[in-house]
Every structure is written in structure tokens, then in C-alpha cells.
Amino acid sequence: MQDTVAKDYYGILGVRRDASADEIKRAYRKLARQYHPDVNPDPSAQEKFKEINAAYEVLSDDQKRQIVDLGGDPLAPGGAGPSGGAGGPFVGFQDIMDAFFGTGGARGPRSRTRPGSDAILRLDLDLAETAFGVEAPITVDTAVLCSTCAGAGTAAGTHLATCETCGGRGEVQSVQRTFLGQVVSSRPCPACQGYGTVIPHPCPTCGGDGRVRTRRTLTVKIPPGVEDGMRIRLAQQGEVGPGGGPAGDLYVEIHERPHDVYSRKGDDLHCRVTVPMTAAALGTRLTIKTLDSEEQVDVRPGTQPGSTVRLRARGVPHLRGTGRGDLFVHLDVRTPTKLDAEQERLLREFAKARGEEVAELTKQGGFFSRMRDAFNGH
């Protein structure tokens, strides 16, 4: 009777005999990526890949690894191999996925308690409210913890029951034979959706979800200096999660209403003021009502159309830091459109005194009259 020489499974994976489970898994992933037949077209890659899978199957199992350490071979004919001594590799589908995609982690039933989603709410504010801040009431429609079952999802006096289909594991397995040998694949249990438990008697208020939708009123504090489109975060004021999980956050998005007088650019304010031609020429003083005060604006003699007067620190307070932006007053010089005979005479005398010749626009046969006649075909 010929003795069977045990395979050197440590040597196949290239690890020491005292290698840890993580070291064995890393070595397996590296070699599996290198020798997988879909990646390596070499004809010998398939056989090499089978050896790698077999070595990992043995060394990742504490009982089989102990047999190897004692000089035996758990996959040898008559041994304690997974296929009754057939010697074929039996590697879980998840392990192959781990090798190629780095997936893994704890398996088993998933929790019914999960974090809730964030929520967003639009809040319309006036310019003065965004500039100086305000405490505004808001109404929110979100999911809140079910007060009847406190998030458990079960009716009073009842409890969760272990799923009979998966036995509480949250997943069911199937075995397929491939060129690699037998491959085990897992999927969430269809009876319990992967939770491992079922609710025989759901809560009559929430139907087993652990939360209900309701409308509630909150007060949000808007800091001075916020701008259109900014969002204020209210921690844990969003949706409560399934199974009474922690609530997400609520984001309040600021929308600034247009102002009748002022336009805003950052922390600066702009407005337009019309002044008569005579006031622009002689100079004057205007009273401007800002967002929070009244200010005097000096219009210097000889002010030209399009001039701007700057009032420092009369704009919007800075959101971060101290101080305020500026207020820019843009001056539009208004020319009179209708003059009576006396006003026209005085204005012509003024122009004559300045040496400014003014054409007679209404005189019969004048230049503009002739131009008008030419366009009208006369």
C-alpha cells in the first residue's frame, strides 16, 4: 500500500506555517487574481487556480488546518474533505468575490434598525431678515418614532420571531458545480428579506416600520448675513430611520425675496436714486432710508449721470466675522422733459451765458425739421 504524501498547502499560498488568518486571506486574494482563468490565459492557470482554492479552503478552516499541522491531508481520499474524499475544492462564492473585488466583512442577518434620511426645506425670507437674522417657525412633514411600539414594529405584548426559512441567518445558500468545483452562493432570505426575523403581529399604528409620518413645527435660528441659496443644518431633525433608527439631518435652504429698493451683491447693497438736473448741477443733500437707519447723502455740485456715492458699513453684516458691507447709491440725473415758455427762456439764457449754442428744434425750416420732412417724403 503506497503512502499518500500530504500537499504543502502553506507552500501553495506562499505563507509561513504560523501565518495568521488575515495573512492567509491576503495571500489567497493576490494569487487568485493572478491565476484566475479569465485573467490568465495560460492553460496551466486553471489547475493552479484549483490548487490555490483548495489550499485556502483547508487553511481557512481551523479543523482542516489542524489536520495539516499534524501531517495529514484533509482533502486526500478517505480524508475529511468537503466532498466526502473526492478531493475537489469547495470554495465559497464570497471568497472568490473577496479575491477580485475586496469585498467581505461580517455576514448574517441585517439589522431592522437603520439610520434615517436627510430632509430639505425651503424658507423664503425678506432682505432685512437675511441681513440681520431672525428666528423663523417652520413646518416639517417627516417620519418620526412610532409612539405605540417605540420603534420595535411589533404589536403590544408580542415579539419578533426567528425566520423558519433561514433559521435566523438572514440568507439562504445554494450550491453549484462549476469548472472550479462546487461553489456556494448566498442571497438574502426571501421570507424575511434578510433580517433573520419576522413580525408575526405588526404594530397597528406603523405597520411594523417603527415610524410614522407627521407634521411638526420647529423654530430655526437664522444668523445675520446669510445669502440666497445657503443651507442651515438642523442636526437629527430629519427622517427617523426604519425600526426607530437615528434621525437624519434637516437642511433649511434660504431663498431671499427681491427687495423693492435694494439689490444685493455679497454683503454690499445697491440702490438707484434720481436727482433733478439742477440739484446735480448745484449740489444737494438727500435722506436715504437704509435697512435699519436713515442716512444723509451729499450730492456734490456738478455731479454727472452715473455717479456713485458710497456709504461705508451700511450694507449687510458679515456672516463670519465682524463688520458690514457697504451701501452704494447710484445717482441718475433727470433732465426735464417739459418746459413752459418762461422755463425755456431762462434755460436758454443760462446756456447763452455759458457759451453753449442751442439749436431751435421747433423752428420752421430748421435742420431737424428738414430731416423730418426728408423721412416723411415731403
Average pLDDT, all residues: 84
Strand order within the widest beta sheet = 11-12-16-15
> What series of H and E elements makes up the topology?
HHHHEHEHEEEEEEEEEEHEEEEHH
How many distinct helices? 9
Number of strands: 16
Range of strand content: 25-35%
- Helix amount, in percent? 10-25%
Low-confidence stretches: 78-95, 98-106, 363-371
The main sheet comes to:
4 strands, mixed
Secondary structure layout plus pairing:
Layout: H1 9-13, H2 21-35, H3 44-59, H4 62-69, E1 90-92, H5 93-101, E2 119-125, H6 127-132, E3 134-145, E4 161-162, E5 171-178, E6 181-188, E7 197-198, E8 211-222, E9 231-234, E10 250-256, E11 263-265, E12 268-276, H7 277-282, E13 284-289, E14 294-299, E15 308-311, E16 327-334, H8 341-353, H9 367-376
Parallel strand pairs: 1-6, 2-10, 12-16
Antiparallel strand pairs: 3-8, 4-7, 5-6, 9-10, 11-12, 13-14, 15-16
Helix pairs in contact: 2-3, 2-5
